[in-house]
Amino acid sequence: MPKHSASYLPLSFEDYGRMSRVITAVLRAFRKDPATSCAYYAMVGTYLLEQFHQKATDLVAGGAMYVLTAEPMPEMLYYGPCLFEDGTPTETWHCWIECDGHVIDLMAPIFREVMNPLKGSRRLPRRMLQRSLADSAATPALVKTLGDFRLTPSEKHTEDVFEGLARCPDILNIIRICSEWYVRAPKRIDKSITMESDKGQATAVQLPSFELVGKW
Question: Less Cβ crowding at N or C end of the chain, within 10 Å?
Fold first, then answer.
């Protein structure tokens, strides 16, 4: 792996935002909830990174912990072993991209909706999440302040993601439409596209208007 400067990121701030917005728009057009679609963000993102940015990528799934707000009331997004209200054990998982020694989470701008599906967490800004994998905390106890995170990859969950996406009838069309819409900065990106259904009905799909205000 080539050496990079400490400030290096695989995607520019502008390209990251474009990629996340395009995927969000297309998922909505296919009636998929972006807040529960981390596998789609990762799968489409790996394709776009490889095709448009000539980057080698890995789609990875497993446990994740992100601290998203500061004191006095820090909010943490958590995926991993947990319990139902009746005490029954279960497990949730997340999906992300690994590229050039970094984690790229294209779902991060909509963490607001992930944290509160009904109305969003009003305190959560829309931010980029690209971090060096070396910054991932070694233990859960070290994930406690704004910007801390921990990733625990799982081969089983990663295999399950690939198997699940392979059974999804829409995945190839989602990837195709995203790749036709996305362009790297500084080229102009269309604010909307027209999608045609199997019955020939045309629908205008708008690029989400949200802008990123920083990074986690």
Answer: N
| Helix and strand element counts for the chain (H, E) | 5, 10
In the chain the domains, ranked by start, together with CATH numbers, are 13-206 (3.10.550.10)
38-43-48-50 Cα dihedral, nearest 10 degrees = 130
Helix spans in the chain (H): 13-29, 38-53, 111-115, 155-166, 171-181
Please, which residues have CB within 8 angstroms of residue 100's CB and are 6 or more apart in sequence?
1, 4, 8, 10, 55, 56
The answer to whether 38 touches 95, Cβ cutoff 8 Å, is: yes
pTM: 0.91
Kindly state the average pLDDT of the residues 83-97: 71
Q: What is the pLDDT of residue 80?
A: 84
Residues 193, 35: Cα–Cα separation, whole Å: 22
Q: How far apart are CA 146 and CA 154, in angstroms?
A: 25
